[in-house]
């Protein structure tokens, strides 16, 4: 369903009416590529992805006009924001093949966000691979968004596989602590504390957490641990909370107020607060 922006759509409707009159063949008045580009832009601004896409198809397939890069980008963007990630990706590929235009990373990130919102893991991976073909290096926002595409649809196993494939394909520098944190955060939103713990183990196994601590990147490391702790609250997993706090203590990572809050909540939810809190609080 399109996102409707009333005032913008009012202008677009007026323009479409004039465009329709032109298309019906008034003598000496024939729509050209500039006419199409203007109408597409108005529809895109109004959030009307169907109209924008149909007009661009008419522009390319029937009129044989080659859209400018900004026209392609407007259609990719409006389709992505409307959750039509497959349509957006097709337009993006046409943009590269027919229009001979190389999209920027912001457009890819918008498309990946659309994949994440709909949980389209495989499509997100295709988008990353397409970036590699065009020698566009995905940044950590792109990685994080692609991984979230899997987890938010309950495909945490696919997300883990995606992280492995990212390393295998050697995209740029590969996933870093922020990508793993995004994966853990997505698990937390999905209520999957066990997967959150597994991603934490992977983060340690790959040496990324150690590197962060070694380079005094305390903030990101603490954020990862706090995100894992937040996943344990709902189910009152105080034993796992205790384990995390021991790890933090051994790493020299000092708990903050958020750490204390999550630890206490996990103990409260456990149904055995006095016993669990007595063990946990000594590490805070």
From TrEMBL:
Identify the Pfam families for this entry: PPR, PPR_2, PPR_long
Where's the PROP1-like PPR domain? 70-168
- Has keyword Ribonucleoprotein? no
Q: Which InterPro entries does the UniProt entry name for this protein? A: PPR_rpt, PROP1-like_PPR_dom, TPR-like_helical_dom_sf
Going by the entry's taxonomy, the superkingdom of the source organism is recorded as Eukaryota
Q: Which PROSITE patterns match?
A: PPR
- PPR repeat boundaries on the chain: 32-67, 68-102, 104-138, 176-210, 221-255
- Which keywords annotate this record? Repeat
The identity of this protein, by name, is PROP1-like PPR domain-containing protein
Species the sequence originates in: Aplanochytrium stocchinoi
């Amino acid at each position: 369903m399109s996102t409707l922006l009333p005032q913008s759509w009012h202008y677009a409707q007026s323009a479409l009416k004039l465009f329709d009159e032109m298309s019906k063949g008034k003598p000496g008045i024939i729509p050209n590529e500039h006419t199409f580009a203007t109408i597409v832009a108005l529809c895109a601004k109004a959030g009307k992805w169907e109209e924008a896409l149909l007009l661009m198809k008419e522009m390319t397939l029937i009129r044989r006009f080659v859209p400018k890069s900004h026209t392609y980008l407007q259609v990719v963007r409006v389709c992505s924001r409307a959750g039509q990630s497959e349509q957006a990706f097709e337009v993006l590929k046409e943009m590269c093949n027919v229009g001979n235009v190389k999209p920027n990373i912001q457009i890819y990130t918008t498309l990946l966000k659309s994949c994440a919102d709909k949980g389209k893991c495989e499509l997100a991976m295709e988008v990353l691979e397409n970036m590699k073909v065009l020698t566009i290096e995905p940044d950590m926002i792109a990685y994080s968004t692609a991984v979230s595409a899997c987890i938010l649809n309950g495909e945490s196993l696919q997300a883990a596989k995606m992280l492995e494939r990212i390393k295998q394909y050697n995209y740029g520098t590969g996933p870093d602590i922020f990508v793993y944190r995004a994966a853990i955060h997505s698990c937390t939103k999905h209520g999957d504390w066990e997967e959150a713990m597994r991603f934490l183990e992977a983060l340690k196994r790959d040496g990324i957490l150690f590197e962060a601590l070694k380079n005094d990147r305390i903030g990101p490391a603490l954020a990862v641990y706090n995100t894992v702790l937040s996943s344990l609250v709902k189910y009152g997993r105080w034993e796992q909370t205790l384990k995390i706090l021991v790890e933090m203590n051994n790493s020299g990572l000092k708990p903050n107020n958020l750490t204390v809050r999550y630890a206490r909540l996990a103990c409260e939810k456990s149904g055995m607060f006095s016993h669990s809190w007595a063990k946990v609080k000594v590490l805070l």
